[in-house]
Each structure stands twice: as C-alpha cells, then as structure tokens.
Amino acid sequence: xxxxxxxxxxxxxxxxxxxxxxxxxxxxxxxxxxxxxxxxxxxxxxxxxxxxxxxxxxxxxxxxxxxxxxxxxxxxxxxxxxxxxxxxxxxxxxxxxxxxxx
Length: 102
Hints:
Number of strands: 4
Number of helices: 4
Low-confidence stretches: none
CATH topology: Alpha-Beta Plaits
Order of helices and strands: EHHEEHHE
CATH class: Alpha Beta
Strand content: 25-35%
Helix content: 25-40%
Strand order of the largest sheet: 2-3-1-4
Shape: globular
C-alpha cells in the first residue's frame, strides 16, 4: 500500500460549507474512489488549510480518478470553496513522508 499525503486550501468563509458537503460525500463518488484502489482516505482541516491522507494501491489508478465523470462533477461542485486549477481540480501540493511507524 502506498501512503499519500497532500495539502489544499479553502477560501475564507467556506469552512462550514466544505465540511457540510463532505458529510456524506456522494455515494457514487465514494464507489469510484474505492474502485480505484483508495483506502483509509481522510481530510483534516486546520484553519483554511486542508491536509489529506490516503492509502492507495497504485499511482496510475489514483491518477486515473481524474478521468471519472463523477470526480469532475465533484471538482466543479467544490471549486467555489477552495483554491482550484483551471480544470476545477483542487490545487494540491504533495507532502513527502519522512517517517512512518506501524
């Protein structure tokens, strides 16, 4: 299993709405995420900064989530709340793992 972590950022004033839209996420989105080999996916918030952690089976399957229509619809749904790229995907900066203990 590959551990993946990244940070994203909300626009001020959208903290509550961001959380509301995740409780719960769309069932079809959850199914697609799981079908792409993603496990143990969490997002934490500190102020406007979001820290995401996921365990993935394969980098290529993770990357291919971007090709899924439900993922693109989710991005469009969330883009007004957070820093996003021109294609509406969230601006995400990978975090390098420097230590792990099982």
